[in-house]
Design a protein that fits this description.
This protein is mostly helical. Helices cover 64% and strands 0% of the residues.
């Protein structure tokens, strides 16, 4: 794909040589699995237990439903723009075109370091998971080995990434479907000789432990679990038929989220009491306490822990695979637009931005190494910055779509020219913006309440915000960019 690059005011076309382009090799099945695979990970397999413990089964369900609605509106907003202008820059480029080049610059770099840092997190997680089978082998060996595998899947061609992500996602989806079927059979007494019933939904403070505040407190965790769905917008630039494939993938997201997340939480809430201390013990070092493992064990499946360990390893590798892919594409587009060093524009024969891929891999590796030395303070700060960065990216999607539609009308364009039209405008982007702001401001709301304000806690939790603002104001001061007038917004396609 010969992508459109923008000048400092985002109006000039790209003059890069013709060989520097990405290739459209992602099929419908790849995009569909990238869309859903991006949301299924440790947030569901492990953190779901914590949300039920903290908010009760009803509170957890409510939080996942609200987050699911937010994600649906975000993805339909992204789809409308990505289908009309299918480029790998995705929301970073759209923000430059329809809001402000400075904001697009900050959003692009924000999303890049978000993925580079999460790549490091997944490498750390993979080493912890492998200790289950090989406790004597140093974790760094496994992290290095998996980094080589993930890099290899990405460096050959985009089809290598798409194919590997497809099969990673198939394993995760199959596990959830089996879990839901087994759980429902147990609830209705068809399996394991007794009826699980719905009593855990009414025990103690259930279904809403702690009331509305508890739903708010777990909403941040739930939101983080959904991050990754926006990857399908970045993949639009390498889709074989974006006008057909992207809407199809986007439409499936909401219903699959409803099926996979909500039904899974419902099953866990029915079969495991929110008072069960095991729900709080579920983490990468104790897969046996995963709510999925516990339910499978109650069903009499003795191999549950080993099986779930393998599935969670798949989820971790899938996340790392996607982060390396998306990070490299965003970095390549920033270089194409003159917002990153020109050497990052280099593309190999397979259509892969190899220099951007290598730099993303290198930074991810450095971030991982910070977790091995010292007390881990630097690493924890990086992770907090990445967590907030995901919400900043989502916020940019909803704000940009609002401006996209306003500019479309201001320029007298016909809605019939839009291959895909997002429903519920302007309610969708407005509601998504509000929910993103609530989640961002509430990332560590406990630091603001009590006898003393926890300034250190605030700094650690919101470190991503000053980094983002630094990028925004630096570009604005140096390039003197201004908000793009609606009449001058750039709707040029490839």
């Amino acid at each position: 794909m010969q992508n459109t690059a923008l000048s400092k005011e985002n109006q000039q076309t790209n003059l890069a040589p013709q060989h520097e382009h990405l290739e459209r090799k992602l099929k419908t099945r790849h995009l569909s699995m990238i869309a859903i695979g991006g949301t299924i990970g440790t947030g569901l397999f492990l953190a779901s237990g914590t949300t039920i413990h903290d908010a009760g089964p009803g509170g957890a369900l409510a939080a996942y439903l609200i987050a699911g609605i937010m994600v649906y509106f975000l993805m339909t907003s992204l789809a409308e723009m990505a289908v009309f202008i299918p480029i790998s820059g995705s929301f970073s480029t759209y923000t430059s075109r329809f809001v402000d080049p400075a904001l697009g610059f900050a959003v692009g770099w924000n999303y890049w370091y978000n993925n580079a840092i999460i790549l490091a997190l997944e490498l750390s997680a993979s080493s912890l998971i492998m200790k289950y089978w090989f406790p004597t082998i140093p974790g760094i060996v496994w992290s290095a080995a998996f980094l080589v595998v993930i890099f290899g899947l990405n460096v050959l061609s985009v089809k290598g990434y798409g194919e590997s992500e497809f099969w990673f996602s198939i394993i995760k989806v199959a596990t959830i479907l089996i879990f839901i079927v087994v759980g429902l059979l147990m609830i209705f007494g068809i399996m394991n000789g007794h009826t699980g019933g719905f009593k855990n939904f009414t025990k103690g403070e259930a279904p809403f432990k702690g009331g509305l505040l508890s739903i708010f407190s777990v909403f941040m965790v739930v939101g983080f679990a959904f991050q990754g769905t926006e990857m399908v917008g970045v993949a639009a630039g390498e889709s074989e038929n974006p006008e057909k494939n992207i809407p199809k993938a986007i439409k499936q997201i909401f219903w699959r989220i409803l099926l996979f997340y909500v039904l899974a939480i419902f099953v866990i809430g029915c079969l495991i009491s929110y008072k069960d201390p095991n729900l709080l013990s579920s983490d990468l070092e104790n897969i046996a306490m995963s709510p999925f493992t516990l339910v499978f064990k109650h069903a009499g499946l003795a191999f549950a822990a080993a099986a779930m360990n393998a599935v969670i390893l798949t989820a971790v590798l899938s996340a790392g695979n996607s982060c390396l892919y998306v990070g490299s594409r965003i970095l390549w587009v920033l270089a194409e637009e003159g917002k990153a060093p020109a050497f990052l524009k280099k593309v190999n024969k397979g259509g892969v931005p190899v220099n951007a891929l290598c730099l993303t891999t290198f930074v991810g590796m450095l971030c991982f190494l910070t977790s091995l030395f010292g007390d881990g303070t630097v690493y924890s700060w990086l992770l907090n910055a990445a967590g907030l960065a995901g919400y900043i990216s989502w916020l940019s999607i909803s704000v940009t779509h609002y401006r996209f539609r306003k500019a479309f009308i201001a320029q007298g364009r016909d809605f019939k020219d839009l291959p895909y039209v997002a429903k519920w405008f302007p309610l969708g982007p407005v509601l998504a913006t509000a929910l993103c702001l609530v989640a961002m401001l509430g990332t560590n709301y406990q630091a603001f309440i009590g006898d003393k304000i926890d300034w250190y806690g605030i700094l650690v939790s919101y470190i991503g915000l000053p980094l983002f603002l630094f990028g925004y104001f630096s570009y604005k001061i140096v390039k003197k960019s201004k908000m793009v007038p609606l009449q001058e917004a750039d709707f040029s396609r490839e």
